[in-house]
């Protein structure tokens, strides 16, 4: 639908509502059957993201502490000022450590766990590239593949992760039994570091098939020296560098697509519930459309979201369009705005409204985006406890699917980048002590609320106000027999704030779902509420939307929710 037609449709809806002169009963028949942000089932889940090796060492017998020979890969500290340390070696986290803490994650209010790539990585630490220093970026000399993103065989699980009687399929079954879905991080753009080694190391720059046969080898050559005509094993790669010294897989080579489709169909068959796709914007939309089609041909509706590490929204939408596979994305523009607002007390809530893109934005569906404020590839949120609490109150009530990086529930290593402690070992002691943290306590409260409130998971978002330290907005879900209107009131100020909500407000019995007391609002009335400092109030009305102004705005949001260049994806 063109923008002009969308605007005409929304104008018609508004005219219809105004024409009834405020009659609620007359307005309802003109409303769409559905008011829904997304029908994607995965949107019901908030996501807890762990770097598996850094979460909990549940089974020391799979640590392989002496692996690597002259280039050992276990426990390689990076020293910083004032006794601070990071680490670029394996530290022992594994499937068992995650599974044994499934209840901890679920009890916080999460429905899914995103784990770093599970595929086989090199056995040694890398000897090429630039040396890792405290705070350095894209430096890999001396680093191991503890993070999982240096795949050499995408059909095999790395030996540091499974335990006896706990392979990947058994792990996913255990997580499902605990009430958690598994999001598997996948990589297609690159494999392991491939060149600049003083002496070629085994496995680096190589890729093996399901039978262990070598099918690609960069042979320690810089990309511009590859000769795929003479050397068939070099045909897997592009002839130009991409990230650091990583191999750069050729997305125009049909063998590349075939290899990765086969690998990732295998892991879906062993229980993966969704994919997070690494470095998505380093490969073409044409490639992603083919990959998505191959996955969805076998598993219709399988949820995938990509990392396009770019704050320029004009570069992002195409990955969500049909021409790019109709997949979802990590919401980097909103991430940047959240950091700006919640790292700086009394920043303007309006900065967040500007990047929600609720109407005619760049995405086919903004409600399917995965929202976050930090992760393993950037500095952790550098906020006070109150800043974390405010960020979580917003993240779990706004549009999108929230994702929290491990340790953020206690403010772990706040403000630290990759080689400054961002990926440090978390451990069982911190998990056991986490309930004492005020960040954890408030996160659990708001995350559990989202987990039991359909409107916060999948409802349309209608902003009443976002200014200064206050935000007020509705989330409305009217779909498949569910009729729920949520009113969210947020206060990130240091003192209590009084709200008087009249605009779009429908009369009825509003139940206090988070703090406060139930409120009976007459038709045309006002809801008054006091929201504590760095607090939230959420009220629910389980009713069909009938208030004329509300219906008109919801109709407009439904009409304009996706980008005209994309085919809207529910």
Automatic annotation (TrEMBL):
<keyword id="KW-0732">Signal</keyword>
<keyword id="KW-0808">Transferase</keyword>
<dbReference type="Pfam" id="PF00128">
    <property type="entry name" value="Alpha-amylase"/>
</dbReference>
<keyword id="KW-0479">Metal-binding</keyword>
<comment type="similarity">
    <text>Belongs to the glycosyl hydrolase 13 family.</text>
</comment>
<dbReference type="GO" id="GO:0004556">
    <property type="term" value="F:alpha-amylase activity"/>
</dbReference>
<dbReference type="GO" id="GO:0016740">
    <property type="term" value="F:transferase activity"/>
</dbReference>
<dbReference type="GO" id="GO:0046872">
    <property type="term" value="F:metal ion binding"/>
</dbReference>
<feature type="signal peptide">
    <location>
        <begin position="1"/>
        <end position="26"/>
    </location>
</feature>
<dbReference type="InterPro" id="IPR017853">
    <property type="entry name" value="GH"/>
</dbReference>
<dbReference type="InterPro" id="IPR006047">
    <property type="entry name" value="GH13_cat_dom"/>
</dbReference>
<keyword id="KW-0326">Glycosidase</keyword>
<protein>
    <recommendedName>
        <fullName>Alpha-amylase</fullName>
        <ecNumber>3.2.1.1</ecNumber>
    </recommendedName>
</protein>
<dbReference type="InterPro" id="IPR006046">
    <property type="entry name" value="Alpha_amylase"/>
</dbReference>
<keyword id="KW-0119">Carbohydrate metabolism</keyword>
<keyword id="KW-0378">Hydrolase</keyword>
<feature type="domain" description="Glycosyl hydrolase family 13 catalytic">
    <location>
        <begin position="49"/>
        <end position="450"/>
    </location>
</feature>
<dbReference type="GO" id="GO:0005975">
    <property type="term" value="P:carbohydrate metabolic process"/>
</dbReference>
